[in-house]
Amino acid sequence: MLALKEKLSLIDPNQIITENPWILWPKEPCPELLKSLEYLGQLEPILIFQEQEKIFLIHGYKRTLALKNLKKNILALKIEKKSPKKLGFIYYSLNSLPYPSKWALVKAFRFFSKFKLSSQELAILGIHPKDLQLKLLNNWIKLPKKWDNLLQLEHLDLEIGGLVKNFSLNEQDALFLLFKDLKWSKSNQKKVLQWLNEISLKTQKQLNSLLEEMNIFTVLNSNLSPQDKIKKILNLVWKYRYPLLSQTHSKILNHLKNLQAGTGWTIDHPFQLENSNLIFKGKFSNPKDLSQAIEELKLIAKQNPWANWESFLDI
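The chain above was modelled as a monomer; its predicted structure follows.
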């Protein structure tokens, strides 16, 4: 206990170097922390090491900045200098509970990937050497650091890094605009990236030019809602990827639109070319409307919606 006391000291926080690579998740102190430190004082020491005349922070980033703002000395526990990798693991172990988000794990892995990691060290990060997660992390850190922000905002999933890295850096910059302000579902992320990659390989065109041709940037700069933008972009890319299928889809939609014209019915097709199922929808508020709808349905049936159905598939 005496040895521990000897390592504790009050320090001017301005003397502490806080911007260190092993500080994996630096964040500004929140107002609540400032109020707590002002009212209750510092309840636990920060962790530091000293090298010659310089003092380096290991753990306690927000408290250090907060007490610097409050112009108060800080209680610090000094330990022996360790390797940057070990300092990173000390910081990680003291700050990773509850289990870190995908964004936080990526930020940590960007630091730890500079070193050779043993299976024991990977286990501290919650990673098994044969886990898919290790492959996903290795794929993701090949992207520029700005992509980490999209992971933090949950605009992209960790799994998508493997698809994005297939594109050149210039193409990645164009792709970044697709996801910067839009929160895509995981399935839609996969679809649009796979389709764009296939289109690029097929046409041998740069992605930037393709996005211009498809009017994607026009959609991004429009006043549509975020979800409508995603829907519109997916539709444009799908049409470009599957032009013949798109033509078939348009034929079927026009056919159904003509059938339902002037009636209270809407007719949908699940657009599975292997079947010709149609979905009839109607909303009626009284017996009179229902009787009329039944007569309209009879007229639709007389036209035989499935007559010459094979012609729609002749593309």
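Residues 182 and 283 are 34 Å apart (CA to CA).
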